[in-house]
Every structure is written in structure tokens, then in C-alpha cells.
Amino acid sequence: MRKLLLSLGVLFVTSISATELIKDKSTSLLWQDNIDSKELQINYYKAQDYCAKLVVGSQKDFRIPTLTELHTLVDYKHFKPAMIEGFTSVANEVYWSSTPFVDDADRMWAINFRDGKTDIIVKSYDRRVRCVKSTKQ
User: Which domains does the chain carry?
Assistant: First the structure.
């Protein structure tokens, strides 16, 4: 069961069912896969806060994935979404990464899962986020 509280424009997720996680055995990453990862659109700063406060079952300590980590979800054989199989909550939209664009501190790298292309997005724009956490092998 998911409990969502909105207070003063800040989003807090207190609990999400553990079935809304996908473990990538090849990378040992645990990925969020619930309705928020499909529908929630927030700026980079709120995305950082959202992932840091996310609790899924007994799992916590989530974060925004790096561009390299996010790229492991791309499958160029698919279109709309260009994503590997197994995920149920996917938008054909741009998802944040935690990788900064070195030429402009106000921008971050992102991936558009419509076609798998990378993009550079201003941090204040609202985009999707799929939180991740590292696990032991």
C-alpha cells in the first residue's frame, strides 16, 4: 500500500509495496517500478528529495540513478518505450539521471524512454524519475 503526503509542495512517500521493485541481477541494482515512476513529474531538486525519502517495503536509501545506470534499462529494439522487458510502469518520457552536464551546472543528463536517446535538461524542469539503490551481489 502506498501512502502519499503532499505538504507545502514537498512530496513524501512513506511506504510502497515491495512488489513494486525490480532487481537487475547483472548490475545488482534495485529499481522502483510503480505508478510514481510512470506518472510523477518533478524537477531535479524534488527528485533528489523524493528518492532519498522513498521507502519500498523494507527497502530505503534510494537515489537518482547515474546516466550509466539508467542506460542499462534502454533497449533499442523497442520503441515507445525503448526499455528492457520486465517493467510495468514506464512513460515514453524523459527520466532524470544524477549525472551533471559539465558545461552547465544548471543542467543534468537524462534519457528519453520514448526512443532511448540521451538529453540534457535544465534542473528546474519537471521530468520523470525512477529511483534506484545499490544492493549486494
Answer: 3-134 (3.10.100)
Instruction: Give the DSSP per-residue string, 68-137.
Output: HHHHTTB-TT--SS-B-TT-S---SSEEEEEEE-TT-TTEEEEEETTTTEEEEEETTS-BB---EEE---
CB 77 within 8 A of CB 112: no
Task: Tell me the three-class secondary structure of 31-48, residue by residue.
Answer: EECCHHHHHCCECHHHHH
Cα 134–Cα 136–Cα 137 angle in degrees, nearest 5: 115
Q: What is the pLDDT along the chain (137 residues), one digit of tens a residue?
A: 333 333 333 333 333 455 789 998 888 999 999 999 999 999 999 999 999 999 988 899 999 999 999 999 999 999 999 999 999 999 999 999 999 999 999 999 999 999 999 999 999 999 999 999 999 75
Q: Which three cell numbers stand for residue 134?
A: 545499490
